[in-house]
Amino acid sequence: MKCMNPLRRLAAALLAVSSLAITIPSAHADWFFRGTPNNWDAAQMTQVDATTYETIQTFNGEDATARFKIDLYGDWTQSYPAQDNVVTDFKTYKISINTNTQAITVTEYPAVWYFRGTPNSWNAAQMTHLGGDMFEYTATFNGEESPARFLIDHYADFSERYPAQDYNVTDNKTYRITFNQATKDITAEEVWPPDQWYFRGTSNGWNNAEMTRLSANTYEYITTFNGEESPARFLIDHYGDFSERYPAQDYNVTDDRIYRITFNSDTQQITTEELGVIEPWYFRGTPNAWNTTAMTHIGNGFYEYIATFNGEESPARFLIDRYGDFSERYPAQDYNVADNKTYRIVFDVVTKNIEVNELGGTSGDFREETIYFLMTTRFFDGDTSNNMKCWDGSLNPASDPAWRGDFKGLIEKLDYIKALGFTAIWITPVVKNASGYDYHGYHAIDHKQVDFRYESNGVTYQTLIDAAHARGMKVIQDIVLNHSCNFGEENLYPLFDRSETIDFNEIADNAMTITDPNNVLPADYLTLVPNAQYGARIDAMKEDVNDVDFIYHHEKSLQWEGYTVQTAQIAGDTVDLNTENPTTAQYLIDAYNHYIDMGVDAFRVDTVKHISRLTFNNTFIPAFKARGGEDFYIFGEVATRYRQVWNSNIPAISTPFYTWAETQSYPWGTRVQNEASTFQHWQDNDTVDNEPTSNNHQLIGNDYHTPDHSLNSGMAVIDFPMHWNFQNAYDAYNVALGGDLWYNDATYNVTYVDSHDYAPDGAPENQRFAQPQDVWAENLSLMFTFRGIPCIYYGSEIEFQKGLVIDVGPNSPLSQTGRAYFGDHIEGSVTVSDFGEYSNATGAMATTLSHPLAQHIRRLNQIRHAVPALQKGQYSTDGVSGGMAFKRRYTDANTDSFVLVAVSGGATFNGIPNGTYVDAVTGDVQNVGGGSLTASVSGKGNMKVYVLNGPGKIGSDGTYLKP
């Protein structure tokens, strides 16, 4: 409480005894609010003008009756009104007093404000209060009236409106409109998604299929009608709920045809263009002795045939025959392929293009690769026209929107990555996303579609894949099988009937019943505009009695160390897909097989421990291997942030566990069987006592032995135990030495220090790696020579964002996190002749490439690429004395590679084969005749790499690799 000065006390006394009316000038008075919200303490009010003071107060049930007084001096000597002013509880009010008349005004705060404009026929639509003085409304202007415009209306009667003249915007766009009631400022920010229209018809079971936006008012969809329902017909749906559809009656077309359907959202005009006729097409070639074999129509005029060429005739070749009589054939000359290979052949009847993708063995042995991991949107901006903010990204300035980098920019900088020596890029998910902060790609709404915000005119995902392959680089696509965005997966919504009125209790035609006993579905469920308040709305959806509608898991009680970690939603904006439902699993398989067909070389699988290993082994891994070949590399993120190998001694959610095949049979086929089996599988693997072990990573003496992969699951893993211990290299090395026996083959593990999610244990608040540079160098020296596939997160080559928190969501600008934009550091160009071999670097890129860690990584890549034992070798520490020191060997029909490695300190190797050993770092030669070699190493991160009959010194000396 504020103390009262003597003059005020005198004035109060005079008021008490005098019959004269005395007015104290308001400029010299302090006024205080006292009431139930502040326990009747004195809270000084704000002077608005010469005669008005005000305060904003929230009443939250503090007393039986919500009430207050205004106290002139804060000491109860003069307070108004005589009786407490009673208000309605659980509301916020703006309270003001006129100091001349003592009149008190109480206004519910915030005031209600309304949007009125061309999109809603100038009706009043209440805006959303964001807090303080800010209000918001999202509106789509769709050519209702010209020009497109709006105003903000206080009382919904036009008596107080802003601005005085209507606020004009561009038509056929969606805007987030904000209004400051204090300043009356209005902003209109164009937001994603733009206005969307959907195709629905007999060809897609009347489901929603998003049309492609060609311009502000033109949309396109290509589809094939193939006898699904008679007559063949369709409609165009605005919101995906039949509330606005064109035409009023279905649009009929001829069946067994391919059409390009175009829709003008201004005029609602629909045009159809016939692109082809659905009829048999035939494969003829050397594998089938030029006989006719009908190809499979896979939709939209594409036909497929899988053919294996086994030396039947030379050269191996084929053609596509329309009628089976050679009268119309493609190409005019036979299509030649390499022999003794299997191909997926796809023919487009519209363009007559033939696409041939080799199946099986195309990835080779992925241990030969090194991986550069990047977030596409944060790497390099090649096209500013596709830059976009996120709904929740208000803290990111316009100059750095969350969706910034793109495929075009990545293609432009592939040579930079190759100059560092990396042979593979791992990119964050490319599929269509929808959430408040979705720039990272892990919130899919459509797994089958590439998000347009990555693409540019003439630059698609296929363009990126082809550009990488042209450089001899491989593409690893990050995929998410566990969950979708907070709106679910738009291709996996319940199969609602096509009627105008949706009855949640009975849905005709489909014989479905949806019950909602808890009444949790929002009233506007079918017409929801993306909004964070509905973050888990799909989770609230009630399941149908048919298996097909148990698309999502609905478990609420997630236990991080219990079975529901695999059946519950891990976050409010990640709706959990029921991967035990064959419908869901097959949808995901079909979606990601398409990317394999495009030429993706490997998958990194997100959130693996949230799906049962049994599900992976019975569904996803066999399917992806069948499509991509047995060598198609798959590695998963089993995020076990523990210093030891086992996650709380629970194998079923531990990193090594997922590298093993099943040894016990479980019922599998229906959803009910699969769900029961995965639960039983969890219970059967609740202790480490029965887990298998392997020596596939170990040399026997000095000898390489053929690994036993008969029980290999086909999925490798990110080495989370090493990662979690990489605060220093010694800890990471030691956890591997003690834990590698639990993996089926630890030489296939992917190793990294930090990532887009996590730093090693011990880094405060999950910072990007913040240890001294020589610690970084030591970690890298171990990673590139020890078992496993090394992976570097973008920017680590210059200690980018060192010490900054990696991910804080939309709570600070991305520029202040570990996911900042990297493009400023790689402006410029470079000429690359081979991996790690470059010249003519210019601009900021030249500075970046010259960084001590960049040069260290470059040379480590060169050494690793030159020594097969460092890529694929088994290892041993038998006969080795020293800190981080080991021997490795790899042998096949054409190779025998043996190497001795000592990192950061000297080591002696006893009992090794005699011969000439050459250090790849210094070129030092040691002739071993007595089975012993001593390596002298000085300097943290420095090392010796003695290769038996080695090629000599590789690369140039740098800060850390030197004599």
Automatic annotation (TrEMBL):
Protein name: Glycosyl hydrolase family 13 catalytic domain-containing protein
GO process annotations (BP): carbohydrate metabolic process
Record carries keyword ATP-binding: no
Signal peptide: 1-29
Gene Ontology MF: a single term: metal ion binding
Glycosyl hydrolase family 13 catalytic domain segment(s): 373-864
Coiled-coil boundaries: none
Xref: Pfam families: Alpha-amylase
This protein's record includes keyword Oxidoreductase: no
Record's keyword terms, sorted: Metal-binding, Signal
Cofactor: Ca(2+)
